[in-house]
Amino acid sequence: MTNLDDLYREIILDHYRSPRNRGELEAPPAVRVEGFNPLCGDEIVVYLDVEEGVLANIKMTGTGCSISQSSASLMSAAVKGKPLDQVRATIATFKELMTVHESTLAHDGEPARVDLRALGELAALQGVVKFPVRIKCATLAWNTLVQGLDEAVA
Ligand code: ZN
Question: Can you give the three-state secondary structure of the chain, one letter per residue?
Fold first, then answer.
């Protein structure tokens, strides 16, 4: 599994160094929500533009550890331009990933609770589960996104 670990580390570092969808949207009309993880000091500000049931645009700013910032970047790339039901499904799958230890994913022939292939690059964050204190870093952007979606459709 070393090669896969290397690949995952490479993806996380790439998104940390070159975050996708970095910036701000004018709010309003965009929704602006802030997230904070006091355990690590991570901060995320998410800007959402929801149009006719589609997450038309997403931008974010923030500071914090590589896990929190790369997770935010990976998230933005995964949900931008997607219908809201698909966005919510991706959120649910990612949160499930954060509760499943990798040993339960590794058995060939057994049904996995999370389909890693469906997650694409997001699967790179799977290893975070081994470090429970980092799970809050990885889920910060996602919880902030959920809050923003609730405000956008309210
Ligand atoms: Zn952190």
Answer: CHHHHHHHHHHHHHHHHCCCCECCCCCCCCEEEEEEECCCCEEEEEEEEEECCEEEEEEEEEECCHHHHHHHHHHHHHHCCCEHHHHHHHHHHHHHHCCCCHHHCCCCCCCCCCCHHHHHHHHHHHHHHHCHHHHHHHHHHHHHHHHHHHHHCC
Ligand 1 centroid, distance to 153 Cα (angstroms): 29
Q: Domain of 97: which CATH number?
A: 3.90.1010.10
How much is the pTM? 0.89
Number of compact structural domains in the chain: 1
CA of 39 relative to ligand 1 center, distance in Å? 7
Per-residue confidence (pLDDT) for residue 139, from 0 to 100: 96
- Cα 49 to ligand 1 centroid, rounded to whole Å: 26
- Determine the structural domain holding residue 63 and report its residue range: 2-152
Q: What is the pLDDT of residues 22-46, one digit of tens each?
A: 999 999 999 999 999 999 999 999 9
Q: How much distance in Å is there from the Cα of 118 to the middle of ligand 1?
A: 25
